[in-house]
Amino acid sequence: MQRLYDFLRRHPTGVDSFWAVFLFGISVVGEVARQEARGTDSPALIIPIVLLLCLVIALRRRMPEKMLLLAIGLGVAQVALDVETTAADFAMLVIVYTVAATGARWASRTALAAGLCAAPVAQLRWPNEHSGALGNIAVVVFQTVPFALAWVLGDSIRTRRAYFAQLEERNARLEKEREAQAKVAVAAERARIARELHDVVAHNVSVMVVQADGAAYVLDAAPDQAKKALETISSTGRQALAEMRRLLGVLRTGEHKEAGEYVPQPDVGQIDELIEQCRTSGLPVDFKVEGTPRPLPSGVELTAYRIVQEALTNTRKHGGPNAGASVRLVYFDDGLGLLVEDDGKGAPHELYEEGGFDGQGHGLIGMRERVGMVGGTLDAGPRPGGGFRISALLPLKPAH
């Protein structure tokens, strides 16, 4: 049954043609019976008019406006040639519905006007001699109602189709917007993971390299110091692996890991441990906190930690063997201030001015991106007396 229904939906003109043939047969048989009852021959004009009215049924969906005009012309011809209404005139009712549902607006209005005029004109042309004035009026009303209902039904179908088409268009637009937002979210998440990986790898590997060089230098002369350096390398490596596991865990869809496998996100409270690690690796760091410490939004906490981490990593990489650094955290009423300075030789000009050189300088780019995400400001550059300075202001309210 469903296959038959699908077939009929795919071939609407074929269905209309079937009903047109059916209507033609009924009309011819009915007209022959009526003429025999009257004792007259069937006029030659009735067959072409019936045939054309049935053509209106067959082609109503392909060319509704043209079939409407043809039906109106046939109606006028019937009145002018005194060809009484037949069963084929049902095509006029059908074309009124079709045009109201699918035709142009001008055709819909024309169909309504023609439908409302059809019954009165027919009654005036072929009045019922056995009915009085009130009876003829009742017949006109009775015959006009189907045309009005056909037009109202067709116009309602048009409105409903337009509504559903609008819903489909809106859904398609929303789907495209969701896809675009998903792509933006994926790109943002990739950038975030890339920044996190850079910070983790750059800082911890630089600590491990410094400790490894120191251990190799004092291995024979001071075995205890070499052992301590190797222990630092081991703990730093484990910490780096734990953080990388946490970052890579977000990429594993469909896998649920125990919370204990991953370390928490770094925050301001862990800056003490970070600085102590730097001191252990041979970089003297002066650390001070001003203002009243208090809990901060997680995004601000992570951004502050990563800025300090990247700044100290850059000091270790570019400051030279005798460089020292200072870190200041200032709690304001509406934000958190950061100042990281060193007295080394400073980073190359292209790293902080151009934002990257031969694959380098991505740490400063990452800093600016992190600060921008929380609505803050960052300034990085050489100090007038030598060394490098990084200052940032992170607001406690999210950026709009």
Gist of the model:
With 400 residues, this protein is α+β, with helices and mostly antiparallel strands. It is 66% helix and 9% strand.
Q: Span between N and C termini?
A: 58 Å
Flag low-confidence runs: 253-262, 354-360
Question: How many strand units?
Answer: 5
Could you name the CATH homologous superfamily of the domain at 267-400?
Answer: Histidine kinase-like ATPase, C-terminal domain
Instruction: Describe the strand arrangement of the main beta sheet, using strand numbers.
Output: 1-2-3-5-4
* Alpha-beta classification: alpha+beta
CATH fold title of the domain at 267-400 = Heat Shock Protein 90
Any idea what the shape is? rod-shaped
Percentage of helical residues?
55-70%
> How large, in whole angstroms, is the Cα Rg?
44 Å
Q: State the CATH class of the domain at 267-400.
A: Alpha Beta
Main β-sheet description: 5 strands, mixed
Note the beta-strand portion: 5-15%
| Average pLDDT for all residues | 80
Total number of helical segments?
Answer: 12
Oligomeric state of this protein = single chain
Give an overview of the whole structure.
Among the domains are: 2-126, no CATH class; 267-400, Histidine kinase-like ATPase, C-terminal domain (Heat Shock Protein 90). Helix 3 packs parallel to helix 5. Residues 253-262 and 354-360 have low confidence and may be disordered. The protein has a five-stranded mixed beta sheet, with helices on one face. The chain is built from twelve helices and five strands. It has helices at 2-10, 12-38, 46-58, 64-81, 90-102, 105-125, 133-218, 223-249, 271-280, 298-318, 349-353, 362-373; strands spanning 285-290, 325-331, 335-342, 377-382, 388-395. The radius of gyration is 44 Å and the shape is rod-shaped. The protein has 400 residues and is of the alpha+beta class.
